[in-house]
Amino acid sequence: MGTALSAFARELGSLSKVIDDDIERRLGQGIRHREAERLAREIPMRTIYRGVAPFIFADLVLLALLAVFPAIALWLPRLLGS
Is the entire prediction scored with pTM above 0.90? Predict the structure, then answer.
């Protein structure tokens, strides 16, 4: 088992250079850093917070549900285990 895990780690390490090159190539074709910086100055922080707020609220509701009903988190593993 240990050898399989170390072989997997070596393979993953050899892929990291390929993945890094692919990311650099894709970023070169997408929004550049300066363009993103310019957009960040044009959009008020209030607008950004307003856009993110529903997602944060949904995460808080999910955390509260998991705290009150922890069986929700275990439902799928139990279903797949049996």
Answer: no
